[in-house]
Design brief:
Largest sheet: 7 strands, antiparallel
Helix content: under 10%
CATH architecture of the domain at 99-266: Sandwich
Low-confidence stretches: 4-8, 137-141
CATH topology of the domain at 99-266: Jelly Rolls
Strand content: over 45%
Distance between the termini: 23 Å
Number of strands: 67
Radius of gyration: 37 Å
Number of helices: 1
Mean pLDDT: 90
Structural class: mainly beta
Amino acid sequence: MPPSAAGRKPKYDITISDGTATLGLMVSGNALSAIRQLPRGPGVERKLAKQKDWSGGRGLERFGADTSRFYDSGAVWSMVPGQALNGPLMRPSRTPYRQHRLFWPWANSTIAAYTGYQWQALTGSQRFIGADLTISGGEWGAALPFTMRRATVIVRKVGTPASALQVAICNDNTNQPGTVIQSVTLAVASVTDWLAVTFEAAFGSDITVGSGTRNWIRVGDNGGTGDASNHWEVLGAHDSALAFFKSSDGTTWDTSGTFTLYWRIYPEPTTKQRRVFFFEYKRALYAAVAVPGAGGSAAVYRNGDRGVATGAQDTTHLTDSTKAWGDNEWQGAVALFTSGGLRGEARAIVSNTSTQLNFGSDSLPSAPTTGASGSEYVILGSDEWSAVSTVTLNDNPTDVAVLNDTVYLTGGDGANITRFREFNNAGTWTVQEADDGANKAALIEAFQEGNKTYLYRVNNDTVQFSRAPSVAWGTNLTFETAAPVGDTNAIATGLTVYDDAVHISKEDSIYVVKNAIATKVPVPIDTARDLVNGTVLRGWNTQLYFNFLDGFERMYGRTIDDIGPNRDQGMPPTRRGTVADFQAVLQYGFIAWNGGEASSYLSAILATPSPGGSWHELFRMPSANLTIQSLAYQSIPILPNRLWFQGGHDVAYLTMPNTAQNPLNDSDMRYTWEGYLTTAWIDLDTIELDHFWDELRLFTRHLSSGTPPALVEVDYQTDAASDASAWTRFTSAYNTSPVQMLAVGNTSVTGRRLRLRLRLLPGSTTTPVVINELELRANQLNEVLYDYVLDVRWGDRMMLWHGGEARAASEQAGAILAQLNAWKGNAAPLTLRTRHPLIDNVRGHLDPVALTPASWDPDEQALAGSLTFRET
């Protein structure tokens, strides 16, 4: 019976049982010290979680499985091993169908290069901030007066402001903001996070600004109750040349200080967003644009300008007497020569008149030439788009290809293909356009086969493909006999050249064209046919990529694997979508992640440095229902490269490094005002244990507490149930490089797991915040187990506590020793009972028995020893 059996005198000091057999033992020596409880391992253990690489990409739930990965990010360039820094700056462009005026970071043309970022609190004497909508540094080209309906400002909240934020358009009152014309408020509850918000204020009706007078945008705390801990902040430029219009009541204004608001104004968007087909032609970037909704006609737009030199020329200027440019319209852009002896020469444009580009002191090796062999040029690096007015499309574009210096644009099976070209016509730059006879197509692609080039087409009314050899301008393409692409039950969605062969995707399959026959590739997507499947079909790094439902697939030979951002933890619930476009640039691949126009999802641009898909989010649309449907990478001499995209109702671009590797090696790179990176959940591989989260050390570059500051602000969550759980801010920001340590929270943060969100806030567009390493230190509260060291004795016919002696065969010394060794040998789970109430009912295993023979003769055997019983 157990030694602690209630109501009966025990036989033994100790019993050990496997549930079937029970052994009884008596303690040896001093009964008070014969049973010892010893802790196995520390109760509190110092732990460290370290991360110094984020190149593995997003989507990791639990830290430790791959320390090069993280959970989520936004506007962060984390693709280079060993560093994470602010993502590329986005700049909206101005097209004839989307005019705007703006005062924006890193402006070009006539706008001074305002590069500073400063967050201005709307409190006290600066409760309201005013900015001149007709400031001399405003966007060129949009003539005044200007009809606007919406205004964008960049805001964030600190703590919980007591009242709404107000954005107002005001008239002028003696060169300062006057009477409010219209206003819109942003409710406190609508901003649920600390992250910056690009707030679009939609006014009730059109507002005409700049009609013979100045107009102002005014942003302020509508209730006037903001304090140091709870207030709104707005983003602007820190520049001593700019007047800081501030007011405590929105009426009386003070101009002391060095801050000016970043803003953008524009008309009411069209009811439906425009699909854009980017293409490059003779080195210039073009866009074929679909018309939203009913009415109107599709159009082709050219970025920058182009032409041929005419008139008197010299080595520091280019003259084109056919132009009527605005003064300094191209200032800050680049002129690239594309023909003749100057071909490949590029010069920054210092200034321009209506007909002449000025290169300043950067002389050309020779003067441009004129006439039939004159110097052709393109103007790159501009935000200006103009319609190629002589080109008329027959329907909304469905595809575009360039063949033999001719651009072909399709409008589907019901519209004739449009072709156009631009060329030097005996010294005059000329645009020609025509229908390509009655030829029609849904999809087209140019492909060189041997010494000939062909235009392949797919018609979905018959689901057939055919090809036509290239021809001189003025001759219609002659397509060969069409051949089927599988059956007619599924339409074609994509057409591309990969691995020296034409590939055609359908909503349920992929085909490769060999010997004029379309052969089905054994790709198992037919069971989930969808019109989105294969709409993005591209080759990259010897592999073929295509979209499938919400995934992105890679095909190599006959092997298919999913590499999309929907893998692992996927995209958060507010950022679901599909791949709408893919643009490969050597070692980087960029996707347009489209949330859809009629959804509540946020669209984004993601990049991967790996063919296997390690995704990093570079840019996110500011609100839901704004699509990103197309991408184009533009290489520009002298200036930063650009990743163009259709974003909502706009055409915009992200600045890209010219080095195409590490942005930090490119002094011309420009960075956005805020990025964030969220770590995976950190539990130190022991999610069942509590932790005291102690301190976070950041190893960084470019942090500063100056004016404007460059900071890393940190938030944390513990044991949160979802992404929607509230974040808690660190009480202080990181402002010192290369290393700084701050306590986590209020120095008493505990929990089984924790994750961090690092918000990167640079002080300038030219110098990003860089994180090289983070170290999170914690005290781990271990679940301590014990070892029980038992000094015992056993023998034949031992005297027991109830006055008798051990007589059964199983109670004799040899039998007890054999049972102990058997339990140790098979790792039997055992229960330890003792007469001491504090050490009783312990589950565990035995270590090998250490013993000393006390007596050994045929009549009486006695042993003494030390047993170690390990708690489990």
